[in-house]
Every structure is written in structure tokens, then in C-alpha cells.
């Protein structure tokens, strides 16, 4: 019924984005039903970023998504901008100096250091 699809003050009037959001959230078992509201449980940040991007692709705006997921608009905007720029929600690899030691050499140095702890 109409009253069942009220999601923290956001009414669903046949909008595909809200229906997909409700479907996504209920299928991945992250919703716990309360009295008449929906409460989100903690979930993986990568999964959350993917769901934000999917719901945004369906046409929901930043304010409606932030009310639904109880996140700040700036967090959502940053995730959406990253998705629009790169086409992915994954973090980019960090910059920095590449490692000079192989994993084997590093393990050997660790074993030498552990063996000489008494000195």
C-alpha cells in the first residue's frame, strides 16, 4: 500500500529510483524495520558507494538520497562526482615511491631482525 513505501518522509509515488532503492536495500538485508521508519545498519563502504551510484543513475537527487541513507550531502556529492569522472566508485591507487625490496628480501630482513632481538 501507499503507507508501506514511506521511507523517512520520502514518499514513493511510482518513481523508479525510490522503488529500486527500496528493492536494493531490502534484498541486501541492510534494513531493519522499526515502528514506521526504516533504519540502516552498518555496511561496507564500497557497497554503499555502489548503491549511491546506482540510485543516482535511476534519477534520485542528492537531497533525497541523503535523507534516505542518512548521509551528508557532501559525502554523496563527492561519491557521485567521482563516479561521473571515472565511471567507477573504487578508490584510485595511492601515489608514492615504489618499493625497492622484493617481498622475499623484506621477509629475510624481518627474520634477521627478530633473530637479533637479544642484542
TrEMBL record:
Ranges in a coiled coil: none
Organism from which the protein derives: Micrurus spixii
Give the Gene3D superfamilies listed for this entry: Winged helix-like DNA-binding domain superfamily/Winged helix DNA-binding domain
Q: Where is the signal peptide?
A: none
| Protein name per its UniProtKB record | Paired domain-containing protein
